[in-house]
């Protein structure tokens, strides 16, 4: 069925539906080729994306078309599924998938998709939309509606994806769809952990995902994956969103830290890693380090991410004492040495746990001051200086001595290289005596 009410004639030239935005010519696509899925949905919603993700359905020859396009444009080519005839061409700013039509007709193919808003097809040759499931109506109503329960059973990750897409698009779950998900929730147990983690990360990564994260938990989707998640933990996640907004307003640099990840990991982390996600994970896993590690390993989180969660859990109990006026420079020095780059995540968790922003503000100021001798100690002298000036040999003693000097500087006992060398000499004399 072609729905004449769909506004294809009013779409801008920058729309994903326009071949002008594609990295290849329309001439390469045979007749009866349709653009389907999220790219059609987003174009109808006038959502723009810097990176194109296009999915085409062909009645036949999908792999051959993909290979021919990739060869002509000298771009990447991947055979994704030889049996089902799915292949991919990878351009600099676009990923284009070509799949063989499932079933004898395009409508039968769309009937196998997850949600109606993803089951709208566009014919780029005739500029017409094919919408047999009234997905455009659900777009207008802002609803995530399943195509059929059997489709959710076929790939149970779709159960969780419903909440992710609702959060992503600002939609709601259609009631019968949500009821069906609740009934089928146990099926998510059999999905590969990496796929579950990807959906979970989106819900953790944005404030608009928090409500749907809680809904998914209440509907039983995380019983296996996050067995220690509780209503209290979900409440704390919501307070973290509020805390992050307040922190970013007063300390924009700290907001940038929360959105980022370890500098040497940034390029490979993609959208999955951020300190804000780390902060929220601490409220969803066991407070016991060993149990938390087991849960995160089960979800295939990286060693760095697991270590970051454990660091926040380990140092959080120290914060109430450290924000008191009686806290010493020595205590703060060892705290910052231990917590390291996880300080931003720890701050959000501490605020959500009830620590006042005014109380933790001095620690934040230290963390954001690059030359602060307590939060970011820099040696006044190097190991080579010690060996040259004090005539000592290389060995573990050098590292110990540098640690002594950094602590002394944090405590305000030394402030110049000369004072550092004098203290080092005294320390060595004392040690020898």
What does this structure look like?
It is a single chain. The chain is of the alpha/beta class and 433 residues long. It has 4 domains: 8-139, Beta Polymerase, domain 2 (2-Layer Sandwich); 144-221, Orthogonal Bundle (Hydrophobic Seed Protein); 234-367, no CATH class; 383-432, no CATH class. The chain has 22 helices and 9 strands. It has a 5-stranded mixed beta sheet. Strands 6-7 form a two-stranded antiparallel sheet. The termini are far apart. The model is unreliable at 264-271 (pLDDT under 50).
Q: What's the SSE blueprint?
A:
Elements: E1 34-36, H1 38-44, E2 52-58, H2 62-72, E3 76-81, E4 86-91, E5 94-100, H3 106-110, E6 121-123, E7 128-130, H4 135-141, E8 143-144, H5 149-154, H6 157-169, E9 172-173, H7 175-184, H8 193-205, H9 207-218, H10 231-250, H11 252-259, H12 266-269, H13 275-281, H14 289-298, H15 303-315, H16 319-322, H17 329-339, H18 343-352, H19 357-367, H20 383-390, H21 396-410, H22 417-432
